[in-house]
């Protein structure tokens, strides 16, 4: 209705639907399928002891290394093209710049969270339910002789970071792992989004999250605080759960600093857009 204020949620949903093109959806399906294809071809070369090994195996190497690229590719790449082609100028005619950026940032957060959380949840469901039920993979427990269920549960709970959550149930663990990866994806995507607003060269802006994620990890003096081990703590040797929040907090601090800079120098940023 003319003159009626359009709800923020509606604008965000429109922006999300705009991003869900057939090509992007096909690429996303292929992205989700990779861990299953990797497992099918590579699992026979490894001795997997149980469903937890299957779950972490599916998310090892490529998903871990490519996480930051995937996080910024969900929305930030399209947003950078919008900035490069000055399409944002035409969108600003319909609504104030601040509102427009909030809509795009919210859509970015929602899409990046869902895009990275869903594959992890699918891997958990496959590893915990489907594969053991159908016996598609033969397990080789890391034990000599019979071991009671209590001892096996204790060993699983002490294997990796976040496995501490297994005492609350397998589904709590699986949903928490998916949610944590999705939350980190939303944070890295937000980081890239904010960098695009202050750095005119899109390639540099979008490279910083990946360089920090990979190169920055190896510059850390303490192995516990590697960025990729923070995002995928269930693939690392078990540490107290607070450890994985340290790199997360650093990225969050960077986002807060960029937000403060954009707010403080909004006239300068406005000229760039």
What does this structure look like?
This protein is 70% helix and 0% strand. It is built from 14 helices and no strands. The chain has helices at 8-19, 22-42, 51-58, 62-65, 67-73, 76-84, 87-91, 97-134, 149-157, 170-198, 202-219, 227-231, 245-264, 266-272.
What would the keywords be for this entry?
mainly alpha, 14 helices, 273 residues
The major β-sheet equals:
none
Can you give the mean pLDDT?
86
Low-confidence stretches: none
Class by helix and strand content? mainly alpha
Distance between the termini: 29 Å
Got a strand count? Answer: 0
Determine the fraction of residues in helical runs and give it as a percent range: over 70%
Task: Categorize the overall geometry.
Answer: elongated
Assembly annotation: single chain
In short:
The protein is 70% helix and 0% strand. It is an all-alpha fold. Helix 2 packs parallel to helix 8 (97-134), helix 5 (67-73) packs antiparallel against helix 11 and helix 13 (245-264) packs across helix 14.
């Amino acid at each position: 209705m003319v003159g009626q204020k359009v709800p923020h949620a509606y604008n965000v949903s429109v922006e999300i639907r705009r991003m869900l093109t057939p090509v992007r959806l096909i690429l996303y399906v292929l992205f989700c399928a990779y861990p299953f294809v990797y497992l099918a071809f590579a699992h026979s070369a490894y001795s997997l002891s149980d469903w937890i090994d299957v779950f972490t195996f599916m998310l090892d190497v490529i998903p871990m290394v490519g996480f930051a690229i995937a996080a910024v590719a969900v929305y930030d790449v399209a947003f950078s093209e919008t900035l490069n082609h000055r399409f944002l100028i035409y969108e600003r005619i319909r609504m104030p710049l601040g509102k427009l950026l909030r809509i795009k940032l919210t859509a970015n957060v929602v899409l990046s969270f869902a895009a990275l959380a869903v594959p992890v949840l699918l891997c958990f469901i496959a590893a915990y339910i489907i594969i053991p039920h159908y016996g598609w993979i033969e397990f080789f427990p890391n034990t000599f002789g019979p071991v009671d269920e209590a001892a096996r549960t204790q060993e699983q709970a002490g294997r990796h970071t976040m496995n501490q959550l297994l005492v609350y149930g397998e589904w709590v663990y699986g949903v928490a792992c998916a949610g944590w990866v999705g939350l980190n994806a939303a944070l890295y995507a937000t980081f890239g989004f904010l960098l695009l607003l202050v750095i005119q060269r899109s390639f540099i802006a979008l490279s910083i999250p990946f360089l920090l994620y990979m190169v920055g990890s190896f510059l850390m003096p303490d192995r516990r605080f590697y960025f990729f081990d923070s995002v995928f703590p269930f693939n690392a040797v078990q540490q107290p759960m607070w450890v994985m929040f340290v790199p997360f907090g650093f990225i969050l601090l960077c986002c807060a600093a960029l937000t403060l800079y954009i707010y403080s120098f909004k006239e300068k940023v406005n000229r760039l857009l």
